[in-house]
Amino acid sequence: MARGRIRARIRRSHLYTFACIRTQDAELEEPHQFEGPGYSRIVYCNEPRRHEKKPLNYCTNYISTTKYNIITFLPKAIFEQFRRVANLYFLLAAILSLTDVAPFSALSMIAPLAFVVGLSMAKEALEDWRRFIQDMKVNMRKAKVQKGDGVFGHKPWMKLRVGDVVKVEKDQFFPADLLLLSSSYEDGICYVETMNLDGETNLKVKRALEVTLPLEDDMAFKDFSGKIKCEDPNPNLYTFVGNLEYDRQIYPLDLSQILLRDSKLRNTAYVYGVVIFTGPDSKVMQNATKSPSKRSRIEKQMDKIIYVLFSLLVLISLISSIGFAVKTEYQMPDWWYLQPYIDSKLYDPTRPALSGLFHLVTALILYGYLIPISLYVSIEVVKVLQAMFINQDIHMYDEETGTPAQARTSNLNEELGQVDTILSDKTGTLTCNQMDFLKCSIAGMAYGTRSSEVELAAARQMASELDVRDSISSNKNGTDASEIELETVVTCKDVKDQKSPIKGFSFEDSRLMHGNWVKEPNADVILLFFRILALCHTAIPEENEETGAFTYEAESPDEGAFLVAAREFGFEFCRRTQSSIFVRERHPSSEQPIEREYKILNLLDFTSKRKRMSVIIRGEDGQIFLLCKGADSIIFDRLAKNGRMFEEPTTKHLNDYGEAGLRTLALAYRKLEEAEYSAWNNDFLKAKTSIGGDREAMLERVSDLMERDLTLVGATAVEDKLQKGVPQCIDKLAQAGLKIWVLTGDKLETAINIGFACSLLRQGMKQICITTNTDTSAQDSNEAVKENVVMQITNASQMIKLEKDPHAAFALIIDGKTLTYALEDDLKHQFLNLAVGCSSVICCRVSPRQKALVTRLVKEGTGKTTLAIGDGANDVGMIQEADIGVGISGVEGMQVYKILSFLQAVMASDFAIAQFRFLERLLVVHGHWCYKRIAQMICYFFYKNIAFGLTLFYFEAFTGFSGQSVYDDWYMLLFNVILTSLPVISLGVFEQDVSSEICLQFPALYQQGPKNLFFDWSRIFGWMGNGLYSSLIIFFLNVIIFYDQSFRSGGQTADMSAVGTTMFTCIIWAVNCQIALTMSHFTWIQHLLVWGSVATWYLFLLLYGMMSPVYSGNAFRLLVEALAPAPIYWITTLLVTITCNLPYLAHLSFQRCFHPMDHHIIQEIKYYKKDVEDRHMWTRERSKARQETKIGFTARVDATIRQLRGRLTKKYSTLPPQVAMPPS
């Protein structure tokens, strides 16, 4: 706190020209005039109890991201379960099982249904309980609240009420939306980081009203009271309108006095504020959406399959009931030995239609095995086990933070394998929000030998590409690959990326370090460059009392990196007073550093509109300089004719830095005469103290007059540190055929820089920037602005349509204001069509709600699977809106105070990973595996149940549609529960068409999911046809073989129990051999479960037959005495099993020989060890097995190689033809 009081003497508002525009007469401004709907909120300051009662009755500060609560859990969870068609059918069957028409006991129908539904509901409850626990971690965080008599005490966030006076200290989050009353600075300034709301890393400056500045300590609030009338709760983050009634005066309020929940206090010791909006009413929660219930596409398609099977079930049940009615009417009276009870309504020859109707119900229950209830249980078990494997994957464990991957819901595992579009946040997701000074250009000379991460990644890829492609071309036309390598600009000399020991400074170049810069040709320009870095900023130095080293509290990470660079170059910013900056300069000529004082005359601060910052200083020699830094396009337009000496080389360096993914700024200066400055300063002070709405425009005009006739000094190149492995991950995902959109709250230039850094953008890519001019949008009507947006979208679409170059790539860049119009109903599909036609899309300055709306547009407009990934509270909307939401849970360097924001993103997500790079393995490996496993598992499930269920129908047709089952009740019970369930679970958990390494080496394999190759209708009906064929073979071969053949040694033929048991044995063998043929990857577990299931059948038959006939019935000693001694039993089993699986085996062989899929080829290469014996062929196959992409550093390398090949071709074409000499 002491440090805060020392700093409080500086009136920070004097540093700002634009961010804190307020004149001495600001309190005389008229209050806002508003009435009617939308402006009805009244807040009584320091009187929270008044807001708990009617008519106000505002909500508490409690927040919840759960799907259920105690009251809604039962009805909502039951509704979720019975949205599944099969569960609805089994509910109906369970109800009917209570009647006389049921062929089975009521318990056998109700118990499995209750188990399945109960298990699924318990899983939902557990997952929601985890969300509740995380919500409570947020709700129970402590805030300092005025409890009365000027005493502040801690209170949980959830108990805050509207009207409470809150004290927030440095690096804490604001617990609700607050009105700023005062801060540790005497002029009421405070700095706020809004990264969680809009993704921006630059600090925002907020300023309290002058009238509340005396409220500077706890006791000042003892008798404090006031009344606020303002707008109602709304999701708009960038506007606020209200009035404060205090001391019988009314003062206007705007956004500059509002501190939003989930933003964070920075560079300020403490602030006092009064709560305006709480909990669900706060702006960040207004931007949130309710937790949706998500279902995978496979699960939705499974419902359609259930409809098909249910239609088949109804059809065969109708056939059975009609057949039964005919038999009852015409043949039942003659079957005297089958006469039913006299009063039976189920077998009444006089009313055959009624008997047939009753039999329809019986048949619907009897043939229910066509729709297996165990399917859902098996899928739930498989998905939970798959989720466990995801959680336990050591390759997705982040050692730095100790964070593993987490599948927070297992319902969407297979959806990971069908993603088409990824929508990603930028700050904290792609980047670490850490800037490193890497390169610079001074006086037309480039300095900095270290390569950026993008350059290193591209160099590695270039090396491997050249190795493969040029060896192929040399085989074809004899071209020497070394000629291309000589032409290559990208080198791989810095492949080992050494970690910088100094945070924010990764610069390496001996020409500038250790005072060597004085030996350079333009040492005077270099000196000026270093001084601009040390002087042109608004940062505050903080000295570590133990080490004496300085750290800097800067408004942006870039500014902090410049100051660290200046310090390392020997120009250490060490102190700031109200009017001066002190810098310790180390010159080679002197042993000790010299502390110089520079008077700050004016500071023209940076805004997103100005895109530059200037400071006017007076040196110790009395000379006045304007030092300026800003976007190169802005600075170059303001250069004097004689100040452009270094423009051409600097422009080239800036282009190179941009290609390397670096953030660039140009530095310039202007020397001022005393009279010239005095005249300008008078105009500047008049503009600054003027009253009226045009004050800001006047300031801009006066500032613009000074920031002209500049002399270019150089440029800086700062690396926005990407999270580890981000470029490689994006490249691999692009090769897998995935589209990547970036949605960020950052400004346009920052978003473009990150686009280059991630290789979403590259030199040569045509950028389509759709924006609304700020001045135009302020003056023109909404219709005119919208027409302009429509015209831009139409022109861009036409340009893409007319493009004939197959290698041309387009990038769409759009800002939040323009997006407001583009997302309107009559324009959004046109915008989407344009975006889909572009290789990459970057949306900047977007609000959380816009992120969610864009995600919804892509999801609904394309009809394909979307995945959203983010790390902050501002990403919750899009994470929940996407088909799959992924939260970043362990960002590198994450401080304790950031946990709140990350929790919100993670708690809203379906999967959580520690870093963006793990998304590659989550999708390309686990997504690919889970999709194929679940798809094959479901297809196999329907196959085996059709093969089994239809044999019941055939037998009933042979027995007068009597409803008699050919199988023992225990056989039918064990079929899905034990004898065939474990092998199919092993298929869903352990199956791998290729290993994880192969998945990553052949990313194009991933496209099998988005193309739905393993769960389309042709494959589904193919499996159903296979089940139909197997059922026919199993039933009719057994009937034909056993019909007239003697079975026992005494010559007796087989009875129903012997035939039924033999048929059941054939089914067990056929379906288990089928699953063995389906599997590509065997472990001992799969062998144990598949062949163990067959062995379990024989063991059960043996033990069941040894039980008393009271329990075993016709199966008493059946295996030992009847089946095992009969050779026909074993021969029939072998014959039927082979006949059933022969068509599938033939299909598989034909497909592998004539129409192999990608994984078939890879499997054979691995099987014959060609990947070891012929590495060249293996590398060539790898280069071919990727989707053609126009983003990622592979696309950048492809473009570079095309250019080099073109240059080589041009070179060879200019050479004179060589005459071939005949052999001597």
From TrEMBL:
| Pfam families hit by this protein | Cation_ATPase (PF13246), PhoLip_ATPase_C (PF16212), PhoLip_ATPase_N (PF16209)
How does this chain sit within the bilayer?
Multi-pass membrane protein
- Where is this chain's protein located in or outside the cell? Membrane
Q: Name one GO molecular function term.
A: magnesium ion binding
GO CC list: plasma membrane
What keywords is this UniProt entry annotated with? ATP-binding, Isopeptide bond, Magnesium, Membrane, Metal-binding, Nucleotide-binding, Translocase, Transmembrane, Transmembrane helix, Ubl conjugation
Where ATP is bound, by residue? D425, K426, T427, E559, F606, K629, R663, T744, G745, D746, R845, K851, N874, D875
Annotated catalysed reactions = ATP + H2O + phospholipidSide 1 = ADP + phosphate + phospholipidSide 2
Q: Where are the transmembrane segments?
A: 82-98, 104-122, 305-326, 357-379, 941-958, 970-990, 1020-1043, 1058-1077, 1089-1107, 1127-1146
Sites where the protein binds Mg(2+)? D425, T427, D871, D875
Tree of life domain: Eukaryota
Enzyme Commission number(s) of this protein: 7.6.2.1
The entry's active site is: D425
Q: Which InterPro entries match?
A: ATPase_P-typ_cyto_dom_N, ATPase_P-typ_P_site, ATPase_P-typ_TM_dom_sf, ATPase_P-typ_transduc_dom_A_sf, HAD-like_sf, HAD_sf, P-type_ATPase_IV, P-type_ATPase_N
Q: What is this protein called?
A: Phospholipid-transporting ATPase
Species, as recorded: Actinidia chinensis var. chinensis
